[in-house]
Amino acid sequence: MLTPFGRLVAGLGLATALAATAPACRADTLFVGGHIYTADPGRPWAEALLVSGTRIAGVGSDRDLRSRRRPGTRVVDLKGKTVVPGLIDAHLHFLFGSLEIAGFNLSAPEHSLTPDRPEELVAAISAYAKSHPAERILIGRADFSSAPPAAPTHELLDRAVADRPLVIHNTTEHALWLNAKALELAGITDEPVADPVEERYVIRDASGHPSGVLLEAAQELIERALLRDMPTERKLELLRAGAAYLNGFGITSLVSATGDLAELELYGTLRDRGELTVRTRMAFGAVAVPHKLTPQFLADLETARTRYHDDWVSANLVKFFADGSTGVAPPLVYVPSEYKALVRELDRRGFQLMTHAQRGDSVTLILDAYQDAIRVNGPRDRRLRIEHDFVVNDADAARFARLAVIAGVQPAFCCSEIGTNYDPKDPTPADRWHTLLASGVVLAFGSDWPCLWPPDPFVNIQQAVTRQIWRSPDTAGIETEPLDGARQGGAVPVPGKRYTPQEAIGVQDSVDAYTRGAAYAAFADDHVGSLTPGKYADIVVLSQDVFSVPAQEIGNTRVLLTMVGGKVVFEAH
Q1: Tell me: the pLDDT tens digits for 533-544?
Q2: In terms of pTM, does the model score above 0.90?
Q3: Which of 72, 86, 250, 436 could bridge across to 559 with cysteines, CB 3.0–4.6 Å?
Q4: Is the Cα dihedral 96, 102, 104, 109 positive or negative?
């Protein structure tokens, strides 16, 4: 039986009997004959890499590192394969994504099945339900309009599944579509729900009946019910599968951009059991839910950062939503004075802050609040972040660098004919990655998975380099959403069309944004993010050289092997 390294050797056509027969971990491993990008500015390229235990022991030439080989060292000849540091997804939603890979997906790269084709949609969901009779609650993902009156209603889903709750996640993760049983599970009736913020986003008809679509903060009504009724061991099972799925894309670390103490404790349990295969930093926050500094919330934050601050699970991070992602224009979540006061207080307490922004005026609001916190609370290493950064005007682009704000970016959201700008009348170019990078702003790339599906770093890198315009005929009838992102929901490239190509960045800068930049954004740059001696051996072997293949082929890159802390967690077969 081949060990993991034996399978690597077989898969790459490499040949050392030692590598094929040695134990899967513990012994030193020497990678030779590689095209190794270290992301270390002091020594960006190497041909050999020595791993000892969980750490990188050496980086350099084949000759130099072979001389350090000890008895029992495994030698893996990469035969010219490209190696990069473990990829760090700087912004995704770990629990949501793990839930959704266990369900069904109607919005795949190849096609999107929407309510515009009701009979096909009902048939597909009904077939899934019949083939999964043991699932008490059915979870799926689809493209649908979030703007009444174009938004769908529960009656269509009731035709597909009438006897069990059915919850369909919009691809933005800012809207949910429920059948009648799911509305019942969430406690949504003709009477207003208790929380006025949540009630504001329950779509109702003229008679006050719930339509079946929940927007923004109202999603919490069903999310609470789902997670409350799900056994802990099932949640852990889903997260293990989610981590393995991410490892297959070369992802070795992540920032989960929503969550609470109960979710964080799940990651801690997996860590304690030795079952966590991706390093996890979690932000406290829920989609478009305004924060309130209640004693319980503050106590949970303090518990989290006191208990979880190691290299596997960490939490000293709070996520705000300045706006949402539904309707004709993303709805604002805060009035400026309220947001500024919250930022100032949480910054005073020493928490790192990140804020979702899709509107240009939201970016201005956030920078104003960050600048105020810096002025009032004094200098320190904050690493403040703004997520998505779709629309940034010239003045705010300059302020990013002055305030040392990190841009959390998901390139594959781009590009339609107007980039990711929701307003076709706004002349401000969107997705200004080159402008931000050239001004000294740190870019941290991520996928926002499950919003982007799959969470493929190489599709993101390709889009950062090409800024190719994509269009989906499958979703053309959907108002306001989704964005025609790269390889999303049946989207295909429009030949010869690029959106503001002057804002493209290079491959090396893009890989840096997935490694060194993302590590910096997570306060993890002292131990991951580059292949530097002393850092953890988080390593990815690629199927092709992303630095030399034609830009339009970067997204076809596949991961052959992923190593986290010197342990192989994924191998292609």
Answers
A1: 999 999 999 999
A2: yes
A3: 250
A4: positive
